[in-house]
Write a sequence for this structure.
């Protein structure tokens, strides 16, 4: 687990006069789970966005090393290439799930693969297997509104995995859930990522969630103030 | 809620001018169209000859046909208004303002937005009256004075538009939940039963028989009245069948969808076939009328080509002119309604769109899906309604196709252009979607 999957150097990012990132260096190793913690406005979500290629930094580099192929300079890619990178190599889980309400659970998961050119039948079968693995067998045809918060979040986790992402970014994945459901969701998230040899990066306020990860990185005023391996 | 709070709520916020402009433009279009059509129609009421009642009756039918797209547009504008204000409305609920109070505020705002649009519509009406006055009826131009409404008439039309805006706002708000935690659309899946098809087809069959029987047993005046009544019944039936047909069509598309945008488009329609129908129902009427009345007009042209009086010949030409005007007005209103509905929908789902952008979903996929979700029901509706009308007047349509193809071709072109206008309105909201894809 010593080879890096993501390597960020000297990242800076400002919004107007507000400095969100002030020279961040961070290396994420393949197969580890990293929690980024910090107060509101500390820059942790901006860091996640920059690492994932959602926004570009004002300066600095982000190097992504896929499981196969050459390293990719994320920040140097154009908008279209970054979108493609996110679609094909990264997975995302958001606080509210943010699934498409008109689609069923299995369609939400299969959609990402279909956009990548996978045939619908194959994408659906693969999506259904992920849903089953995450304890949602029999719920494939339910609409998102018919699922509980925890179930919807597991659908989001399945969606993040269905394309075979090397690296999953999760932004407050348990923020809208009660503590019991949070544990279930974190179990599912960790099993489907590090449990399968993949890498997880979580932004969270929740110390319990952070404690489940293999490393906790603390961010304050746009800088990393500590990085500690959990017991 | 006191006036001060209301003023704060209604004050335009920074950066929402484009969203505010949409319903204003929509109501401007509505007002200008209604003023123009009513203005044109009023000129018929100054006539006193034997043919005057026919012109007046046809003008009245045309006006009635415009009510449905007008109402849909009002509802769409009201929903957009609610979405645009979501944070303020939610805050008001959080502060203890009752749902009724929030509804009142939203309705007042919708009426104010409609009033701004109506004023613009009046200006457009006055500016275009000389052009509209050039349209010939009975072989001569109507004239600017004839088509320009009196100040009282203008006030009455503006009042009517505001009333529709207020009424539609109330109806539109029934589909929106304004809670202290946010504004969201109701997510209950609407069900559309196949029983609708049975009722619809039965009534259409009855209308078909009556259409065939009546002209042979009654006089001209009674026949026109009964046919107009049957026309209305057939339209009502289309409203019953329409959502079911769209559901069946979308279900078929869902089964066959291999691409992400097609899958999403079919699901968007299936989520609420009734809403999909509401959006395009104005086209159902226009399309139905185009074939139903167009066939009659084409045949009148043929029958009058021999020994008809000048008045008969003029009536046939004028009916075609009136038909084309009504069709254009219907399509423009549906296009405005689609534009406003799309804007409302984009605002409603901006968080979702932003997340899809994060996932790397191409903007084109979502854009294509939402446009397909409009255009597919539109085409099904236009073709389906035209087919219904064609069945009702089947032998006459056949004769008209052979004897007066140019009349039907004209109407066909108008329908095609109308569909093009709606397509253009779906394109017009792409920049709004693109903005909601941008990162915060």
């Amino acid at each position: 687990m010593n080879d890096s999957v993501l390597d960020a150097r000297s990242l800076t990012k400002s919004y107007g006069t507000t400095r969100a990132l002030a020279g961040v260096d961070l290396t994420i190793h393949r197969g580890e789970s990293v929690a980024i913690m910090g107060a509101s406005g500390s820059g942790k979500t901006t860091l996640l966005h920059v690492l994932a290629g959602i926004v570009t930094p004002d300066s600095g580099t982000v190097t992504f090393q896929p499981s196969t192929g050459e390293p990719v300079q994320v920040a140097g890619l154009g908008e279209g290439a970054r979108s493609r990178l996110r679609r094909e190599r990264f997975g995302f889980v958001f606080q509210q799930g943010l699934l498409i309400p008109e689609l069923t659970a299995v369609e939400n998961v299969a959609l990402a693969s279909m956009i990548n050119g996978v045939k619908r039948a194959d994408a659906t079968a693969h999506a259904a297997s992920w849903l089953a693995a995450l304890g949602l067998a029999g719920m494939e045809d339910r609409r998102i509104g018919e699922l509980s918060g925890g179930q919807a979040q597991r659908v989001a986790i399945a969606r993040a995995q269905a394309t075979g992402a090397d690296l999953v970014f999760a932004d407050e994945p348990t923020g809208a859930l009660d503590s019991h459901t949070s544990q279930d969701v974190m179990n599912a998230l960790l099993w489907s990522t590090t449990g399968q040899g993949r890498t997880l990066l979580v932004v969270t306020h929740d110390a319990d969630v952070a404690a489940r990860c293999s490393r906790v990185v603390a961010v304050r005023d746009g800088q990393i103030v500590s990085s500690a391996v959990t017991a | 809620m006191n006036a001060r709070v209301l003023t704060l709520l209604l004050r335009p916020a920074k950066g929402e001018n484009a969203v505010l402009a949409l319903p204003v433009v929509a109501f401007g279009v509505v007002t200008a169209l209604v003023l123009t059509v009513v203005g044109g129609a009023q000129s018929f009421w100054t006539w006193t000859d034997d043919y005057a009642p026919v012109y007046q009756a046809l003008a009245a039918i045309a006006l009635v046909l415009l009510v449905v797209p007008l109402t849909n547009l009002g509802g769409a504008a009201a929903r957009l208004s609610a979405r645009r204000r979501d944070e303020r409305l939610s805050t008001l609920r959080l502060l203890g303002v009752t749902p009724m109070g929030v509804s009142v505020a939203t309705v007042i705002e919708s009426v104010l937005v409609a009033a701004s649009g109506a004023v613009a519509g009046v200006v457009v009406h006055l500016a275009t009256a000389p052009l509209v006055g050039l349209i010939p009826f009975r072989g001569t131009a109507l004239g600017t004075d004839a088509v320009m409404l009196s100040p009282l008439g203008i006030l009455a039309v503006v009042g009517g538009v505001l009333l529709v805006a207020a009424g539609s706002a109330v109806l539109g708000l029934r589909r929106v939940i304004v809670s202290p935690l946010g504004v969201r659309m109701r997510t209950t899946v609407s069900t559309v039963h196949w029983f609708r098809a049975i009722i619809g087809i039965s009534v259409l069959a009855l209308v078909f028989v009556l259409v065939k029987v009546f002209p042979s047993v009654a006089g001209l005046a009674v026949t026109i009245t009964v046919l107009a009544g049957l026309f209305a019944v057939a339209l009502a039936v289309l409203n019953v069948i329409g959502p079911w047909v769209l559901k069946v069509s979308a279900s078929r598309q869902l089964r066959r969808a291999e691409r992400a945008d097609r899958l999403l488009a079919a699901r968007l329609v299936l989520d609420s076939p009734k809403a999909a129908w509401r959006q395009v129902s104005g086209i159902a009427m226009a399309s139905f009328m185009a074939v139903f009345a167009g066939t009659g007009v084409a045949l009148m042209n043929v029958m009058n080509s021999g020994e008809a009086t000048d008045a008969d010949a003029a009536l046939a030409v004028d009916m075609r002119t009136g038909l084309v005007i009504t069709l254009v007005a219907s399509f423009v209103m549906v296009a405005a309604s689609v534009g406003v509905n799309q804007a409302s929908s984009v605002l409603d789902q901006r968080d979702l769109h932003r997340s899809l952008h994060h996932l790397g979903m191409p903007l084109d996929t979502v854009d294509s899906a939402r446009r397909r979700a409009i255009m597919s029901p539109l085409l099904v509706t236009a073709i389906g309604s035209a087919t219904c009308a064609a069945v009702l007047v089947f032998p006459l349509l056949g004769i008209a196709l052979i004897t007066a193809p140019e009349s039907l071709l004209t109407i066909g072109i108008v329908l095609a252009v109308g569909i093009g206008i709606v397509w253009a309105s779906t394109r017009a909201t792409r920049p709004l979607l693109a903005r909601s894809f941008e990162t915060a």
Chain B has a mean pLDDT of 77. Residues 191-343+352-440 of chain B form one domain. The interface with chain A takes residues 187, 189, 257-260, 263-264, 267-268, 270-271, 351-352, 355-362, 365, 439 of chain B (CB under 8 Å). The longest helix of chain B spans residues 310-348.
